[in-house]
């Protein structure tokens, strides 16, 4: 099978993880780590649930892969992630010596695998990874766009409800004042 | 108390953590996180023991501080670490919105808080931290130098022992051959 078709198969697995994050109200980002043609670790972003800044999909997947392999060196592994890694996760790729990184959508705000900078291919570090980007990017970006659209809609609805409640309470407040004055 | 004196007090705490790493044969790097003048989290590097690429002193300290604060936002916290953070840990500072980073020795190989680059003050990220460096750098660098010197010495001793064993085994091997020919 050609590389692109294989990459799509594993990116679909990362998208399944992203969907799990969405189900529990987390920003939908998913990752899997592949070794010898098999998924050895999977994870999704669950920062809100854990309230830990480090529980990004990639970092958790890397930790799980280390546990499976029994080593902090993931030299024969490929990381598939739906969104371009941030500086922390790109740094974790360097630290764990992952051989290859494949991501879906680029991240214009924090992407450190080619967008803002490229930490996984920095000549001065002691490790560099192969890099492929844009695999199933429409799907990866689409799930994020839909999530944030829903979030904005929900916030708007809550704001309107709060304003409505405030008006109601003002009306009854005025009535109460009227009562007192009477 | 002036800032430098305070910084030295907390850097000594980070050095205590580094010493704990050394005791168990880990590269001696230690970190503490301070909030409201108190140490709320402490950690040391224990990558060899865990075989997880992510168990650097800073990353573990950040996770523990998140657990203590109950939030992934560490906006009122200062990270003290004996060695300049790597890209992963500098990225974790950005992700957790730590207000200030204080480190001891600079890291010419992977330092990402001013040496190779400065990720904690990168204008394009959504968070920047205050930065102080060189606090008790002699002590922080000294413990590392001593550790690696001891490691090299130990490796040399083991190599010499192995060579000695090989010579011994060759001698007895020859004797055995002699025996066969006799």
TrEMBL record, chains A, B:
GO terms for biological process: tRNA wobble adenosine to inosine editing. GO terms for molecular function: tRNA-specific adenosine-34 deaminase activity; zinc ion binding. Residues 5-123 form the CMP/dCMP-type deaminase domain. The active site is at 58 (proton donor). Residues 158-182 are annotated as: Disordered. Homodimer. This is tRNA-specific adenosine deaminase. It comes from Alkalicoccus halolimnae. The gene is tadA.
